[in-house]
Specification:
Blueprint: H1 2-11, E1 13-20, E2 27-35, E3 38-45, E4 49-58, E5 61-66, E6 69-76, E7 79-86, E8 105-115, H2 129-134
Antiparallel strand pairs: 1-2, 1-8, 2-3, 3-4, 4-5, 5-6, 6-7, 7-8
């Protein structure tokens, strides 16, 4: 439980990003928050404008899903390096046809510019005994 809270804390905040390569996204900011226990994101891209995102984090792996785009990669020391790809479609899935670009994937680099104050404050039982004794877990 504490590892999950630490992973969320590493992801939550405001990030600036740039995409290297030809892709629908260009550069901008994404803001990750916790709402009703779930991670949520808002992406503000120079080219596409404001988009809502579904966000998942597992240890240092961060995944941001926007309509038909998926950004996945790793967080380390307040930086996120990942790849931007089109979401894969099941062969049985049908969708309306529209002109598609030649975009397949591109790399994305982001830097956290603001972190959240507290994501999920650990309960006293989740704290290590040394922290409990120091009173840092109240």
């Amino acid at each position: 439980m504490q590892d999950e809270a630490a992973a969320r804390a590493a992801a939550v905040g405001t990030w600036t990003y740039e995409v290297d390569g030809f892709a629908p996204l260009d550069q901008g900011r994404f803001h990750i928050t916790v709402q009703d226990g779930d991670l949520r994101g808002i992406v503000r891209d120079r080219r596409l404008g404001r988009l809502r995102a579904r966000v998942d984090v597992n240890d240092t792996r961060l995944e941001i899903n926007l309509d038909d785009l998926r950004i996945s990669g790793y967080i380390e020391d307040g930086q996120f390096t990942g790849f931007l790809r089109r979401s894969q479609w099941d062969v049985a899935a049908r969708r309306q046809t529209r002109p598609r670009s030649q975009f397949r994937s591109a790399s994305l680099f982001a830097k956290r510019v603001r972190s959240a104050t507290a994501v999920d404050k650990p309960t006293v039982l989740e704290c290590r005994s040394l922290l409990r004794e120091a009173g840092d877990c109240d």
